[in-house]
Structure formats: structure tokens, C-alpha cells
Known about the structure:
alpha/beta; 11 helices; six-stranded parallel beta sheet; 2 domains; Arc Repressor Mutant, subunit A; 50% helix
Amino acid sequence: MKVLVADDNAIVRLGVRAILEQIGDVTEVIEAVDGVQALEITQSDRPDVVLLDVRMPRRSGLDVLVEIAATARVLMLTHSDEPEIIRAALTGGALGYLVHGQITVDQLAGAIRTCHAGGMVLSKEAVAFMTVSGPAAPRPAGNAALRSKLTAREIEVMDAAARGLDNADIAREHFLSPRTVKNYLNSAYAKIGVHNRSEAIVLWLEGEGPPL
């Protein structure tokens, strides 16, 4: 697996590289110092996974996210835990959002593998911000309007996906095959009017669906 680390902080890049070099699945690590270079390297070197910082010079991670996500799996790895940035990243095509200082080597390794396989990865901080409206008012995941469109099994699978589980984990939790989980998710996406996992999770966590 080829991984690109895009961050303007050289110390952060060095630390992430040291972690990546301990992960057996990672065969090559490339570095970018800003959004422009990250996009250029993505287009020329075709990394499998891009670890993308939010705030970088010339072009930020959010500025280049849509273009990079068109050809690579993107996992946001940043210090920012602002809810609007998290939402923008997930709606822009990122398959995950992790906050520095809150993850271990094993957790990062698992996140990269999940992202590479097309699964969704959210840190506890990201999940907390996505499920909170106001200082201390948690929203239930998936409001009644959304849930009314799905079968009981589709709701279970969507709830699990919103918790950050990948298809394999959902399959184990609910005694299903990964293919069946994928079928349930695709059916749910069509019913709630989204096109991919990122959009579905953002909508599900916000609990605000389009009018029936």
C-alpha cells in the first residue's frame, strides 16, 4: 500500500512516517508539504491512501479534497476538531477523520486499512461533534423521517456504519456476510437520497433528512 502524508509541519510528517513504517501493509510513504503538492503527487504517483491535513499553505486540505478523493482514499489526519470542518471533510469525500494525539499506532494502522478497503473511520471526537447540536444536546442518530424510509435491518446497518464500523465489522456484529452488508447499505443510500457512505453517515448523524 502506498501512502501519502500531506502536512505542512515537518515534525508531524516525521512522526507519521515513523508510525507508517511500522505497519506491514505500507510499502511506500510519500510526503507533501501543502495542498498543491499533495494534489500533484496524487495525480503523478497514484497513492492508495492519502493522510490529509486540513490547514496547509497555498491550498488547504479541504480545498483539494474533492480532486484527491476522485483517485485515492482520503483520511483526514489533523489537529482541527471543529464540527463544520469535520462535516465539510466528510461531505467532500473523505472516508475518515482522525485527530492528532488521540490515536495509537494500532488504531492508525487499522484506520488506514479500513480506509483503503473503502470503509469509514471516525475518531471519537469526530463522532461526538457530528452527533451534538449545541453545547450539550445530543441528537439521536437518524431522525424519524430517515428511519421511516428503511427496513429494520437497514437501520441497524446504518447505525453501525455511523459508529465508524467498516463492512467486515458490521458483518461480524450482525452475523451477516460483508456482501450482504454492502447490499443493505446501497439500498439505504438510495432510499435516503445520498450517493456514498460519507454522505450517508453525515446525514444520519445530523438526523436531518430531505422532506418525505
